[in-house]
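G.,

No rush on this.
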Amino acid sequence: MTKEEKLIHELEVMSPQQLLADLSKGNQASAQDMKVIRDVMTSQGLPAPVMNVLIHYVLLQSDMKLSKAYMETIASHWSRANLKTAKEAMAFAKKQQRTNYKPVKSRAKYRQYRQSARVVPDWIKDDHEEQKNNKESISNVNAQKGKRRAASFYQSIRRK
């Protein structure tokens, strides 16, 4: 059996409570987590193996956090898809992941667009302009000092 087949088998035979305990390295699942799972299972009519896949999927997608709203959204989608087994649920989740995947290029364009549309408060603009003017005046003073030093150096060489 492959790792995926072993996982599917485990998800088919264990209860959601056992799954949460296994994913928590043996710690007992919290009462709140179990309430969320019960509510979602009963409201959406998902069988235990599909619920196990859903729990596993949600925890992996949300950095091991069990979000009720996120779980309900996916559960209602899976319920409409009429999933009955862990294998069906895993295949469906993989298919959705592939279709929802967007290349990095489009994300970069979105970020670039989002950054350009930012509104910068006047007080920040004023501060930046003031700093820019200060830098320019300091560089002008330094340039003038450098010119004076160079001129005095050349004059001292000419005198000799």
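When you get to it, here's the other one too:
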Amino acid sequence: MMSDSNVLLLDNQLCFALYSTSLAMTQIYKPLLEPLGLTYPQYLVLLILWEQDGIGLKDIGERLGQKSGALTPVIKRMEQEGLVDRTRLPHDERSLSVRLTARGQQLKAEAMKINQCLIETCGVPGGELMAMKDKIIALRDILLANQKK
């Protein structure tokens, strides 16, 4: 049990542990993604599209936990760089579908190398790394469920 004087120390905060770990992780990705001309947010969008191509911008936003408006500049830039195509859905002109181009699909092979580099950089056995990920996802799900109450 923590004493009252230690409760508010920065290093004792779960939120800071998650935040600083997230920053460290994105900094590891940066030099790995640079040769591909990708930013971390673009990489996340590609991960979603490699899993399910041709989905709506709103769906991408939901998967990333972001509003679609925040993703619009990222997707527009990806379109300008020839990674994706955006099209309006015929049944709903307000909705956009995002589809990979051939170039966007080709980057998937390079991403496999990035994933392996990241695993090696973490220096944690694969099973243990997956267990950590599962615990973080469980915590996220609890937090999101409690927000809705």
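Residues 46 and 104 are 7 Å apart (CA to CA). The longest strand covers residues 92-100.

Enjoy the weekend,
O.
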